[in-house]
Design brief:
Layout (H helix, E strand, L loop, with lengths): L1 E12 L2 E13 L4 E5 L6 H8 L7 E6 L2 E2 L7 E4 L3 H4 L6 H6 L10 H14 L15 H14 L4 E5 L7 H18 L2 E6 L2 H7 L2 E5 L4 E8 L10 H4 L1 H21 L1
Parallel strand pairs: 2-10, 3-8, 3-9, 6-7, 7-8
Antiparallel strand pairs: 1-2, 1-4, 4-5, 9-10
Bound molecules: adenosine-5'-triphosphate.
GO molecular function, one term: ATP binding
Keywords: ATP-binding, Nucleotide-binding, Transport
InterPro entries: AAA+_ATPase (IPR003593), ABC_transporter-like_ATP-bd (IPR003439), ABC_transporter-like_CS (IPR017871), ABC_transporter_ATP-bind (IPR050166), P-loop_NTPase (IPR027417)
């Protein structure tokens, strides 16, 4: 349903040429939760921008539902790492969540309100409707960003290291939130992280990226039980085996490049 075929991205300008992504091919099935993990600077953000139609690839295609992505497609929503910059500080929480829905001209005000209510409830922020983002903790702000993305009712949710800037406890809570939202809404999720444990904990599948210029180094099916729990899942010997395997792959990619 989301297909990436032979994607390459070269940045060119001012006498400098950086091949960020060399040749990426993978498919995301409808309703799947896949994680992309790779070393810092390997082109994860570049890839997501190409998927979201924000950046034109140098070669290859991105197809959503069989249609080539050339501009931000209506069926996609993004959550970035920098929640502080992605929310408007002068808008209250509910208005931040409602803002993208206003682009859907055919949608009634009543429907917009229902979606805002539902998505804030989904992320556990019903009580924070009237707050401004700067009155909330980092973790709560990221919940608002997630609520805004899901209110849009996307087919595909792209998340770019969304929890890199929050503390460990909040991060664990937000990971569980992503799994719950995914299960409740049946949305397809592509979650990008440099954290191997996070990728294994969240994903049904993990795509391991090589160092830049990037290719898919390996794809692993994470056949851990669907009901995941921060304590029991992480203590499962298979969890440890997956993270060791991925760690080795990433180390191998670094050595291959050196
Ligand atoms: N606008 C740009 N112009 C030129 N080079 C760029 C540009 N954006 C990214 N790059 C280069 O492309 C490569 C991949 O960058 P990108 O930000 O996609 O990686 P990343 O995996 O998301 O990094 P990190 O894990 O550190 O967030 C890097 O070498 C980076 O310097």
């Amino acid at each position: 349903m989301l297909e990436v075929r032979g994607l390459q991205k070269v940045y060119e300008g001012a006498g400098r040429r950086v091949e960020a992504v060399r040749d990426l091919t993978f498919t995301l099935e409808p309703g799947e939760l896949a994680c992309l993990v790779g070393p810092s600077g390997c082109g994860k953000t570049t890839l997501l921008k190409c998927l979201a139609g924000l950046l034109a690839p140098s070669a290859g295609d991105v197809l959503l539902g069989g249609h080539k992505v050339t501009a931000p497609p209506p069926g996609m929503a993004l959550v970035f790492q920098e929640y502080g910059r992605s929310l408007y500080p002068w808008l209250r929480v509910r208005d931040n969540v409602e803002l993208p829905l206003r682009q859907k001209k055919e949608m009634s005000r009543q429907r917009r309100r229902e979606l805002v209510e539902r998505s804030l409830a989904e992320v556990g922020l019903t009580h924070a409707h009237d707050a401004y983002p700067w009155q909330l903790s980092g973790g709560m702000q990221q919940r608002v960003a997630i609520a805004r993305a899901i209110a849009y009712e996307p087919e595909v949710l792209l998340m770019d290291e969304p929890f890199a800037a929050v503390d460990a406890q909040t991060r664990a809570d937000l990971e569980d939130l992503v799994r719950r939202v995914w299960q409740d809404l049946g949305v397809t999720v592509l979650f990008v992280t440099h954290d191997i444990d996070e990728a294994v904990y969240l994903g049904q599948r993990v795509l391991v990226l090589s160092n830049s210029p990037t290719v898919v180094q390996e794809q692993l099916t994470i056949d851990l039980p669907d009901e995941r729990d921060q304590l029991t899942t992480r203590a499962d010997p298979r969890f440890t085996a997956f993270r060791t395997r991925i760690y080795e792959q990433i180390q191998a990619a670094k050595v291959a490049k050196a």
